[in-house]
Amino acid sequence: MNLHDQIGALEAAVDQLLVAATPHAACTAEAANADHPVADATADVTDTAAAAEAQPEVTAAEPAAAESAAAESTGPTLNLARPSQNAITMTIGDQTVTLHPLQVGQMIEELSNARASMEPEVPPGIPGGWRFVSTKNPVMAVQKQPNGDRLLVLRHTGHGWVPFTFSPETVIEMYMLLTQR
To answer: Is pLDDT of 49 > 70?
Structure first.
């Protein structure tokens, strides 16, 4: 998905959010989603992401700190909870959405695509205190590109399929790094 497609998707999500903000539209959207929970998963995820992006003062808070953060913030608070192993609930203001694994994956992909075009860029160094989940021996696929570059796609247990493109020089550098003793 290129930058123009990402912007178009975000604009459409904002439009959907504005429509959903009216009480009548929200009831209609909930009724429609009840019939097609998987097909409409992207709309739910995109609406939630757009709602978070549209608010200038959105704060991520732990459940215990939610009340104090809400009191300090002029905008709605984003609360995340994990009621079960296969579900995450997101609450923005008074709207709560439950996301299941497929929807979480879709949200990660949409947020990742949007973040790739945002400023400032992701820091070039690993930040201190960064928390992560490492995937040991991930499933991978490699494809040679017409210009000599290599596309490497790795399957991360949390992020899903993550693609990287390497120039021939970087492939050699990576090989040397990986085979150092």
So the answer is: no
